[in-house]
Structures are given as structure tokens and as C-alpha cells.
Amino acid sequence: MSTNQELKDLVKEKYGEIALQSKEENETSCCGSGGCCTTNSDFTVMSEDYSHLPGYVATADLGLGCGLPTEFAQIKPGNIVVDLGSGAGNDAFVARSIVGESGHVIGIDMTVPMLEKANRNVKLLGYTNVEFRLGDIENMPVEDNTADVVVSNCVMNLVPNKHKAFSETFRIMKSGGHFSISDIVLKGELPDNIRSAATMYAGCVSGAQQKEEYLQTIRGAGFINITVQKDREINIPNELLVKYISLEEALEYRKSGAGIFSITVYAEKP
Q1: What is the pLDDT of residues 142-182, one digit of tens each?
Q2: What is the pTM of this model?
Q3: CA atoms within 13 A on the CB side of 203
Q4: Where do the structural domains in the chain lie, given as residue ranges?
Q5: Number of other residues whose CB lies within 10 A of the CB of residue 101
Q6: What are phi and psi of 218, to 5 degrees?
Q7: What's the CATH fold of domain 4-268?
Q8: Which one, of 108, 151, 105, lies nearest residue 133 by Cα?
């Protein structure tokens, strides 16, 4: 993989495949988390349980996130919320339950099967204040100064040009608006084989930045009052690691102090 477009095409392909399955199928089938072929456990191993949140829609939950950004996003009734990389609509529907009928939620995703699944959910639920748009986070189909709140769940690390993505987030946000974004970051150096593996890229690891580099990217886009709301280490099982590196390398990695972390970050537009 040498170009940004190739990386985007890979993400579209992998997440397009996942969109055609339920969360349970992703976790249990041969082309899910267990079995004989390259699996989607890479995609679900980092997820957190959404089922306790108001507005939760089970058919929109594919287990692809790495945090609960809507729980930390300080969304208020009447807000306009934009969900970046909205998938089947999981965070968008939780946000909709908070903004109420006077608010509006816009989901953006570049994967057509995900948008189709999200729109089926909207139709079944009869919601009139949630919409999903086909678009690239590096060039969002959203007007300037639209959002009171932006949320995103384990998506920014998949974007090749993260500075452009955060600059676009800044552009679409109202002055005084804020975001709450859950994402994967690194502390220390990962083995080269993990960083370069294509499936691990689409599973949120190989595209991840070092934590301080990630926060600096946010600062560089113009955001202020940056706060890490949650920080937890992701325990990648040895049986998953050894798909990409040898057992000896996996054990050495365990001893190195390096790690993969899910963080939820809050920041404001001045």
C-alpha cells in the first residue's frame, strides 16, 4: 500500500464486507471473529458495550467502535450533531435520543453498504431528524459552521491524512462547538509486521499515531481545551497477534512496554 487512495479503497472493501453481516455474524462466523479464514475479530476486539445507552439500536451496532464517544460528548437537546464514519448508525441513533425532535444528526460515511444499512434503520425506525451522507472525512459534504457537536468512533485512525480530517472537523463546527472522539493510539513502537499488515490497518492498528502525535494533530487544526476523557489499554490476544508476527515476537512485544490504547478526546473550537 503506497497511496492514500489505496488505503481508502482497502477500508471501503473491508468495512463493506462487514456491513453485510450482523454483529453476531461478525463475531462468530468463519468470516467473523472465529474460524478458518482471515477474520473480523481484528475489527471487533476493541469495541465496548453500547446496549445500556438510551437510543441504542441493536441492528446498527456492528461492534466496530473502540469507545463510547456519545456518552462523553455533552450533547444537549436541540443540538446539531455530526457523526464521522457513522457506519450503520450506532452513535448517530444514540445522539438522536439526546438531541430530541428539535435537534438533528448527520452521519457521514464513505462505504456504500454501511450507508444502505444505516438508511434502512432510519426507515424502519421512522426517524425524520437523522440523515446519512456519502462522503470522505477529508472533504466532508457539510457546510461551514454547522455542528454544535462532532462525534466519531474509531475512524480518524483509518484516515490517511489526519491533519486534513481534523481541519475539516474544525471547518464544519460552529464557534464554541466541541467534539468527543474515540480512537486508537499507540504508546511505544509496534513490531513492523503489525504496522504494515493490511488487515490490521482496516482493524484500526496500523494507521494509528503515537498518542502525543495524535493530540498534536488536533492542536495543529486549531482546537483548544483538549482533554483526554478516557484512556484504556487494548489487550490484543496472542492468537490474534500471531497471525501477523511469530510467537517469539509476540512475547517480546509484551515485554517491551509498548501498547495499543483507546482514548476518548474532547476539544473545542474557539
Answers
A1: 999 999 999 999 899 888 899 999 999 999 999 999 999 99
A2: 0.82
A3: 25
A4: 4-268
A5: 11
A6: -65, -45
A7: Rossmann fold (3.40.50)
A8: 108
